[in-house]
Amino acid sequence: MPVAHKTGTVKSKQGSNAQSQKAPAAKTVKAASKKKDEEDGTETGEGDEWMQGKTLIKPLDQLDLTEAELKEEFTRILTANNPHAPQNIVRYSFKERSYKPISSVDQLAVHFVLEGNLLHQDSDEARRQRAKQGLPEEKDTVETAVAEKPETPAAGGEDAGDVEEGGGEERADSVESKAGKKEQKITNQFNFSERASQTLNNPLRERGCQTEPPPRANFSATANQWEIYDVYLEVLQKQEKNKEKAKAVPKKDDDKGKKKMMLVETQSDDITKVAKVAKIIERMVNQNTFDDIAQDFKYFEDASDEYREQEGTLLPLWKFQYDKAKRLSVTALCWNESYKDLFAVGLGSYDFTKQGRGMLVFYSLKNSTFPEYIYPTTSGILCLDIHKHLPYLVAVGFYDGCVAVYNLKEETLQPIYKSTAKSGKHTDPVWQVKWQKDDMDNNHNFFSVSSDGRVVSWTLVKNELVFTDIIKLSLEGAVSEGPEGVQLPIMACGTSFDFHKQIDYLFLVGTEEGKIHKCSKAYSSQFLETYNAHNMAVDAVKWNHFHTKVFISCSSDWTVKIWDHTIKTPMFTFDLNASVGDVAWSPYSSTVFAAVTTDGKVHTFDLSINKYEAICQQPVVAKKKTKLTHIEFNPVYPIIIVGDDRGYVTSLKLSPNLRKKPKEKKGQELPKGPEVEIAKMEKLLSLLREPENSNA
Amino acid sequence: MTIHHTDMPEEMRVETMELCVTACEKFATNNESAAKMIKELMDKKFGSSWHVVIGEGFGFEVTHEVKNLLYMFFGGSLAVCVWKCS
C-alpha cells in the first residue's frame, strides 16, 4: 500500500497517524481524496473548518463496507525504511559456497546530488591551490572558488568582482602566476596586454657523412719453431756481413775516391773503358778462329823430318794483311826484341814509277787479323829498325830520303823526329837504318845508308835529329867532271849495311854496283876493305850472329854468298835461280840461314848438313807472281816471317830439321851454344880454306 | 728478438717492439697476460683496435690496416703478431 509517497524529503519512523494524516491532508487534495475514503472518520473528526460545509459525496466505485468494517482501525506504522530497498538480499558466499542472506540492507536512497565547489581552507586541496598561486597568505588573491577569505581589505573589491563573475578560476590562476614572484608586478587587470614575438628559427637539416676507412691489407704467416730458427740464422749472417763491411768500408773509401776521379775523367769517352776489354776479346776470338794455327805454332813438330835427314819443311802459320796496305809491298820487316810476338812491317813500293804513300804497321802474333799499331806515312817506307832496348822507338827510312823516329807510346800518328831538307836528309831513298848504342851523352842514335852515297849518323838530341855524315861512298876511280872543272867523286849508291855484332865500329856496306865495303866509323872517307861481291846491287849484307868473321850477302844476280871478311873471295856461293830479295841468318845456329827470292820461294840452308844445296826450298805464296821481298827470323820462336810485294806477311814454322843444333857430347848444353856454333862454322871454313890454300 | 715482417713507420715500430719485449719478459709464463698488456697499451697509444697473438706454433691469415702490422720473434721460440683492425 503506498503509504508515504506523497511525503517530501523527510521521512521519519515515527508512526503517528495523526501527524501523517495531517500532512497529506494539508498538501494535496487529490491524494487526499483516496485517503479520505479510509480516513473519513478521522478527517471529519478533526477536519478542517472549510471542509465542513460540504456533504459527503460518495464516489461510485467506493467500497461498501459494513459499519463494523468501517470502525475497524487500521494501524499504519511509518518507518524510515526505504520502500524500494530490497528486504531480503541474498548473496553468494564463496567462502561457504552457498547463498547467504545479507543481514542488513542499506536503506539509503539518494534523491539528488549537487556537487559544490567549496573547499575548506585547511584542506590539502586548498593548500595545494594556494601554493600554486605562489602567494603568501597575506596577499590578496581572491578566490571565491578557492574559498580563501581575502585577508587584505584592499582586495576586497576584487574579491567582490571575482565573486560576482562567478569564480573564473583560470583568471585567478593567471593573475596569481604573474604575481607569484617576489616584488611582482601587479599588472593592471583592465589595461594590460601581453606581447610576445618569435625570432626566425632556421630550419633544421640533417647531415650525414662517412669517411673512407683506413686501407687494409692481408697478411699471413706461420709461426713454427723451425721458422723462427731460420730467421734467427739469417739475421746472424747479416750481422756478420755488416761487420765485415764495416771493416772494409774505411779501406774502400780511398778507392772510391780514386774511382770517382777516374770516372770523371773517362766519362767523356766510353769506348776507352771498353777498349782494353775489346782487345782481349778480339784476341780471344782470333785465337779461337786460328786455333789450329796456334796449336801448330806451339806444338807441331813435323814428324816426317825424322825420315828426311837432309830436308826440312816450312809450315805456314798465320798470314798477316791489312786492307789499306794491299797495294803496297812489304819493304821492311823487323822483330821487336823485347816483345817477342811483335814485329814491324814497313810498307812502300820498290817501283820507281809508282811512288805513293807508305805505312808503318805493327803486328802481333796474337792477332793476325788486325795490326796493333798503324802509322800512315806520306812516302813509302824502305827500311825500319826497332831499338834493341827501347822497344817503343822505331827508326824509319823513307823513299823520299827522310828518316824518322816513331814513338809507339805516343798517341799521335806522327813521328817524334823527322829529318828535313835542312837537317840533312838524304837526297835519295834510304835503304837501311840501324840503331846504335847510345852515345857518350846517352843520346839515342842510328845510322842510315842511302842511294846518295852517304852513311849518316843521326842523333836524337832533345827535340831534333842531328846528323853526322859518317862516310861517303865514292866510286873508286870514277871521277866525274863537275861544273867549273872541279872533279867530283861520283857517289856510289849504298843499298844495305850491317854493323858487326861485337866490333862496334866495324860495318859493312853493300852498294848498287855490287861491291861490299868494309868500313869503320872512324874513317870517313876510306874503306877498310872492298869486296867485289856481286854483279848487281847488293840487296842485303848480314853478319853472322855467332862467328865474328862471317857475313852473308845476297844480290839480284841470283846469288847468295858467304864471306869471311878476312878473305876477299866468298866461302860459299849459292845460285838460287831467281833474284834474291833478302837473306837472314838464324839466331839459333851459325850455319842456318834463309833466303827469299822473287819467284816466291824460301830457301833454307844448313851448312852443317848440306854445303851445296838448300835443305828446304819451298814456295810460300800462292801466286807465283808474288815476289818475296824480305825475311826475318824470330829471335825466340822457330818461325820466320816473309814479306811479299802484295803487302802480305806470312809466318812459317821451321821444321825440326831446319833447326838442328849440333849433337855433340851430351852434357854440353846451351851455355856453350855460341861457342859450339862458332866451332861448327870454323870447321866448315877450315875445310874450305885448306883446299883454297892448297889450290893457291 | 728479431723482426720478421713489418710495415710500420720507424718510430712506431721501435716503440711497439720495445713494448712487446717488455711484456713478454714480464709475463714469461703467461702468454695471455702478455698479450693483454700489449693490446691494452697499444690501444691507448695508437688507437683502437689492436689484436695480439703470442705463441710458439701457429699459422695465421689476417687483414690489417696498412702500416699497422708487426710480426716478430722473441727469445728464440716465441712469435708475436700485432696488428690493428677496427
From TrEMBL, chain A:
GO molecular function: dynein heavy chain binding; dynein light chain binding
Pfam families, A to Z: WD40
Biased composition (Basic and acidic residues): 135-151, 168-185
Location in the cell: Cytoplasm, Cytoskeleton, Cilium axoneme
Superkingdom, taxonomy of origin: Eukaryota
Residues in WD repeats: 531-564
GO cellular component assignments: microtubule; outer dynein arm
InterPro entries: Dynein_IC, WD40/YVTN_repeat-like_dom_sf, WD40_repeat_dom_sf, WD40_rpt
Ranges of Polar residues composition bias in the record: 9-21, 186-197
Region (Disordered): 1-55, 123-197
Biased composition (Acidic residues): 39-49
Alphabetic keyword roster: Cell projection, Cytoplasm, Cytoskeleton, Dynein, Microtubule, Motor protein, Repeat, WD repeat
Biological-process GO terms, alphabetical: cilium movement; determination of left/right symmetry; outer dynein arm assembly
Residue spans of biased composition, Low complexity class: 22-31
Subunit comment: Consists of at least two heavy chains and a number of intermediate and light chains. Interacts with BICD2. Interacts with CFAP45 and CFAP52. Interacts with CFAP53.
Function: Part of the dynein complex of respiratory cilia.
Family: Belongs to the dynein intermediate chain family.
Protein's name in the database: Dynein axonemal intermediate chain 1
High-level lineage: Eukaryota, Metazoa, Chordata, Craniata, Vertebrata
TrEMBL record, chain B:
Keyword set includes Zinc: no
Compartments where located: Cytoplasm, Cytoskeleton, Cilium axoneme
Main location: cytoplasm
An annotated GO cellular component: axoneme
GO biological process, one term: microtubule-based process
Keyword Heme carried by entry: no
Superkingdom per UniProt: Eukaryota
Annotated organism of origin: Hucho hucho
Official protein name in the record: Dynein light chain
Protein family (similarity comment): Belongs to the dynein light chain family.
Keyword terms of this UniProt record: Cell projection, Cilium, Cytoplasm, Cytoskeleton, Dynein, Microtubule, Motor protein
Task performed by this protein: Force generating protein of respiratory cilia. Produces force towards the minus ends of microtubules. Dynein has ATPase activity.
Quaternary data: Consists of at least two heavy chains and a number of intermediate and light chains.
Stored PANTHER family: DYNEIN AXONEMAL LIGHT CHAIN 4 (PTHR11886:SF2), DYNEIN LIGHT CHAIN (PTHR11886)
